[in-house]
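dumping this here so i dont lose it
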């Protein structure tokens, strides 16, 4: 009896730590996310499928003019000699190996800063996910429905990882498109490759070793390259995981994990001291209800009305609203006051932009363009446009007022003082293109047509539109990728 009692006691000593270990592992985000990617059925609501399809429409639209930007052409010229492959490089006459196609197309997708935003991750999600998915889909012979499935699943993990490190990660200068984007792309690619739970977790973990990118690159060619590098990392991480390369499990949450290294040594203090939470950003990784709610529906994507940094869009929407509702000319404007969250204004660091890239991150330029033209199009963000004296002369009349509150706590307030003494005011909580004011289907097609103008011949544009309209039913992505394979026309054609 004593012997049996001893066994029982010693057994309990072994079982308790084993249970604790299993419980810890079940809550480990890398393990949990790998399992979710591998085991979640492809049974998404139809509105989620439609939202994903519209995300592909938007990213393909902006990638067409993005493909002819200098950064994309330089990226293609760099990687093309490294080897051909099965995956389309948008706007170019050659196909590449999947990682290089993902890099080039990611740069094209983000080159004009006309691509969507995703609040839970504080990242440009589709510019990373779609290039990675399409590059692998061509290589693997995947269908349009496979791509939409991978997108929804990858976006969910991208959002969950973002919620685990934001808002501090982004506010401290990390470009989440590059960092969190790499992890989300790995999850999407793991889903497309149908990896098992172990290999999917390895892909997610491995991607943290490829994650990097600073906001100090904003206004340079390297900023759009961040999206391409993240897309490339997703393809590589999932492919290496499929081949059997393993990775650690403490790379998202742990003493030397993303949360403590890419938030800071005060991570736990910040997490435990949160008093206001936006976009689910709790500084905790959700592992119990990973798929609930489905973020593509509950948070949605912010489709861009203007081809510049989204932090300027609430102010520009407000300016255009006041311009439309009141009869005044730019010459009658005495001053424009913009009251906005400090995090938005920090993203708009170029108060006196010198070229088109810097203008994309300038509140002053965005507001001036909206006031002077009543719109803001691709042609307004060229180097030549930025040098126009009448636009630059307006900068001193635009005044920024940082507000130390989160974007959900404080809507952007626009105040226009006219020389006749009138003061016009409005406040914008959510920009056009968000869930609060979503694009109609007609607006999506209009954006495609505007982006393709002068680059795609009418018959090619029609084929592309048909492929995008029927994307969920395509047995392969070839009808889509064939329509955007280069070379394109020139803008003057």
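and the seq i came up w/
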């Amino acid at each position: 009896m004593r012997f049996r009692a001893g066994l029982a006691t010693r057994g309990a000593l072994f079982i308790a730590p084993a249970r604790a270990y299993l419980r810890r592992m079940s809550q480990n985000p890398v393990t949990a996310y790998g399992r979710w990617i591998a085991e979640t059925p492809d049974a998404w609501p139809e509105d989620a499928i439609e939202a994903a399809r519209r995300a592909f429409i938007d990213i393909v639209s902006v990638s067409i003019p993005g493909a002819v930007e200098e950064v994309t052409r330089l990226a293609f010229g760099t990687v093309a000699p490294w080897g051909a492959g099965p995956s389309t490089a948008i706007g170019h006459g050659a196909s590449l190996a999947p990682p290089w196609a993902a890099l080039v197309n990611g740069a094209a997708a983000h080159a004009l800063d006309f691509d969507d935003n995703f609040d839970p991750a504080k990242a440009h999600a589709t510019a990373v996910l779609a290039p990675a998915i399409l590059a692998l889909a061509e290589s693997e012979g995947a269908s349009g429905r496979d791509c939409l499935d991978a997108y929804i699943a990858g976006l969910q993990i991208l959002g969950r990882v973002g919620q685990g490190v934001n808002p501090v990660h982004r506010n401290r200068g990390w470009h989440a498109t590059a960092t969190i984007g790499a992890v989300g792309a790995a999850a999407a690619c793991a889903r497309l490759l149908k990896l098992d739970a172990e290999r999917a977790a390895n892909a997610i973990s491995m991607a943290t070793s490829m994650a990097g990118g600073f906001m100090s690159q904003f206004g340079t060619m390297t900023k759009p390259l961040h999206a391409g590098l993240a897309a490339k990392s997703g393809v590589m991480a999932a492919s290496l995981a499929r081949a059997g390369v393993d990775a650690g499990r403490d790379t998202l949450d742990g003493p030397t994990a993303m949360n403590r290294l890419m938030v800071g040594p005060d991570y736990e203090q910040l997490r435990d001291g949160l008093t206001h939470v936006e976009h689910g950003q709790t500084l905790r990784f959700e592992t119990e209800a990973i798929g609930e709610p489905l973020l593509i529906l509950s948070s949605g994507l912010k489709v861009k009305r203007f081809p510049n940094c989204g932090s300027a869009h609430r102010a520009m929407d407000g300016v255009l609203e006041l311009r439309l509702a009141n009869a005044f000319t730019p010459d009658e404007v005495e001053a424009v006051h913009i009251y906005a969250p400090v995090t938005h204004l920090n993203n708009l660091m170029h108060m006196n932009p010198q070229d088109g890239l810097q203008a994309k991150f300038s509140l002053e330029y965005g507001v001036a363009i909206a006031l002077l033209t009543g719109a803001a199009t691709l042609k307004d963000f060229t180097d030549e446009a930025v040098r126009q004296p009448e636009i630059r002369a307006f900068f001193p009349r635009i005044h920024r007022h940082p507000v130390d509150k989160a974007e959900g706590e404080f809507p952007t307030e626009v105040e226009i003082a006219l020389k006749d003494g009138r003061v016009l005011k409005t406040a914008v909580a959510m920009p056009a293109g968000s869930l609060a004011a979503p694009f109609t289907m007609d607006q999506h097609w209009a954006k495609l047509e505007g982006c393709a103008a002068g680059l795609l011949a009418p018959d090619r544009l029609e084929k592309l539109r048909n492929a995008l309209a029927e994307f969920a039913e395509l047995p392969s992505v070839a009808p889509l990728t064939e329509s955007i394979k280069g070379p394109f026309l020139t803008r003057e054609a």
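Residues 1-25 have pLDDT under 50 and may be disordered.
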